[in-house]
Design a protein that fits this description.
Layout lengths: L6 H31 L16 H18 L6 H28 L24 H15 L11 H22 L18 H17 L5 H6 L3 H9 L2 H18 L8 H130 L5 H29 L7 E5 H15 L6 E3 L5 E5 H18 L7 E9 L2 E8 L31 H11 L3 E6 L5 E6 L4
Parallel strand pairs: 2-4
Antiparallel strand pairs: 1-3, 4-5, 5-7, 6-7
Length: about 575
């Protein structure tokens, strides 16, 4: 089961670990620099006296750096930090173990005065105390085993760190309460004594190591929100702080001659009383926490009973809903079968209508063929005989007769063009399309060049992009562009500086092609008539035409799956937009 950890408290402990690392680094660096910058004289009054050996200061500096690498979790440098930490921990471990070998074997590996000469030491110049070396060995191994686990919950490093901290805290209490045995002053070896500053440095180092991993091992209990976590946080420091405070008071009283040794037993009694009260107070807190837990369990049982009752009610409701759902599914199935029957009937009707449309298309083709041959022949005869009469008897006819002949010939030519446009319009739906890339810029340039040759006296400014590539049938798009550009050419005849533009723009995620002119324009109220066959907005005397061109354009765009529309205003020109979806 996962422990309910206090993430905020854990992050604060990680911050404490980083602060402890900086403190140990600073402690080691200042102690090491004091050997090189301050004279080795006990009367100098330096903040770090020479009993802190140079090797000890260097080992503290390396241990602090190792703690800093452990406490800072940079995801981009985890592997490099782990390797560097293991290297520094190995150096500290070797330093402690080699120094202990010098104590046990009476050997000298010449590392004691490796950094500087110790002129103040007596029995072993430059060599750290026995328990200093032991603590460096313990904490170095702890760094190497910091993330190693035995089984599911046991971290050996936690045990080693606690052992090291107990030794250093005991030495601190000994210095504070003037108990020499606590800081190993009475050790059998003359080099066993732990100084106050060294004990303080190891206490800070051990605290930082425990705080560096607040979410696992023993610290997971301390940082948890459980009753055990609350009890651990409240009682953990009591065995340290209470003896320290109550031990200092009689010591200060005796030194100041306020007290004598006969009343020291009162402070021992106060020590026991304070510990008892602390345990009793925290037990009371845990007791009330358990009462709340039991009340919550009772409430949970009541809620479970209510939940079971509600589940039974909801089960009955679900059974009723399932019956209704089954009935609805049956009705929907019947509706689906009815839809399938109607779809089959619709497909049959579509097939019949398709056959009718195919027959109509064939009749339309026959009609187009008939129009092409049966109507053209009389028109050619009328135009031919009128032309012959004009050539042979023209000089003998009066002016009125000659005008009549001219009107006959003009009407036959107009009728011929109208028949051609109708045939073209009718064949648009039956002709097969061949989709390919089409450069509208080149097509438009050819059309405008033909229009210019037909009226060499006109000067029209034509604007186009260099490459306007679309996807479509080149023949049909040429017909559509021919009609649009011819319209623009025709309706700019009365403009003082005629201009026609072919272009492209983007609007609401769509690519629009357009043909724009500055010609006569039209009222937008009549825009609905533009694309109907034989519908005109201007008279033939003002602007000639048949009223079929724009209907042809719309049919071509519809066959491509696109659309066409216009925007205009009187005497302000017109813009015809069209969209080709495959472009």
């Amino acid at each position: 089961m996962k422990k309910p950890n206090n993430s905020l408290f854990g992050s604060r402990l990680e911050t404490i670990a980083r602060i402890a690392a900086l403190a140990v680094i600073s402690f080691g660096a200042i102690a090491l620099l004091s050997w090189f910058l301050l004279p080795q004289n006990a009367s100098t009054g330096t903040p770090l006296p020479p009993q802190i050996r140079a090797n000890t200061a260097l080992a503290f500096l390396l241990s602090g750096a190792c703690l800093w690498l452990t406490a800072n979790k940079n995801k981009n440098q985890i592997r490099a930090s782990r390797y560097a930490c293991h290297f520094l921990a190995t150096v500290v471990t070797l330093f402690g173990s080699v120094t202990l070998l010098e104590f046990f074997g009476q050997w000298d590996f010449r590392i004691d005065q490796f950094l500087t000469r110790d002129n103040l030491a007596g029995w072993a110049p430059g060599r750290p105390a026995f328990f200093t070396a032991l603590l460096f060995l313990i904490f170095g191994i702890s760094f190497l085993l910091l993330d190693r686990r035995v089984g599911k919950r046991i971290y050996p490093s936690d045990t080693l760190i606690i052992i090291g901290m107990l030794i250093s805290i005991l030495a601190l209490l000994g210095h504070l309460c003037n108990f020499p045995a606590y800081y190993m002053a009475t050790f059998i070896h003359p080099g066993g004594r732990l100084t106050l500053l060294v004990a303080l440095g190891f206490t800070i180092l051990g605290t930082g190591m425990l705080c560096a991993r607040p979410q696992r091992g023993l610290m997971a209990i301390v940082t948890s929100k459980t009753a055990g976590g609350v009890l651990a946080r409240r009682l953990l420091l009591a065995p340290i702080l209470i003896p320290a405070v109550l031990g200092l008071l009689p010591l200060l009283g005796i030194n100041r001659r306020f007290l004598n040794g006969d009343v020291v037993w009162l402070f021992a009694f106060a020590d026991l009383l304070a510990l008892t009260l602390a345990i009793w107070w925290n037990a009371s807190i845990v007791f009330h926490i358990d009462l709340k837990r039991l009340a919550a369990e009772q409430k949970m049982l009541a809620l479970n009973d209510d939940l079971e009752k509600r589940v039974t009610e909801r089960t009955l409701q679900l059974e009723a809903a399932n019956r209704d759902l089954q009935q609805e599914i049956t009705e929907r199935r019947q509706a689906e079968l009815e839809i399938q029957r109607l779809n089959a009937e619709l497909e049959k009707r579509v097939s019949e209508r398709t056959a009718q449309l195919e027959a109509s298309n064939k009749e339309l083709e026959s009609f187009c063929y008939s129009v092409s041959h049966d109507l053209r022949a009389p028109l050619r005869s009328i135009d031919g005989f009128a032309h012959a009469l004009q050539e042979e008897a023209g000089p003998t006819l009066n002016a009125t007769s000659r005008d009549h002949l001219h009107i006959v010939r003009s009407a036959t030519k107009h009728m011929g063009r109208l028949i051609d446009d109708l045939l073209q319009l009718s064949r648009l739906n039956t002709s097969q399309m061949r989709l390919q890339p089409v450069d509208l810029s080149q097509v438009a340039q050819r059309i405008v060049s033909d229009l210019q040759r037909s009226q060499p006296g006109r000067s029209v400014e034509f604007i186009k992009p260099s490459n306007l590539i679309v996807q479509g049938d080149e023949r049909l798009l040429s017909i559509a562009l021919q009609n649009l550009l011819s319209n623009a050419w025709k309706f700019t005849a009365k403009a003082s500086a005629p201009r026609i533009e072919l272009g492209m723009e983007h609007n609401n995620g769509e690519t629009l092609c357009f043909v724009r002119d500055n010609g006569a324009g039209f009222e937008m109220a009549f825009a609905g008539k533009l694309f109907r066959a034989f519908q005109r907005l201007h008279s033939t005397q003002e602007f000639p035409g048949h009223g079929i061109g724009l209907a042809t354009v719309q049919r071509i765009l519809n066959r491509h799956g696109g659309r066409v529309w216009a925007q205009s205003a009187p005497n302000q020109g017109a813009t015809f937009y069209f969209i080709l979806p495959n472009s």
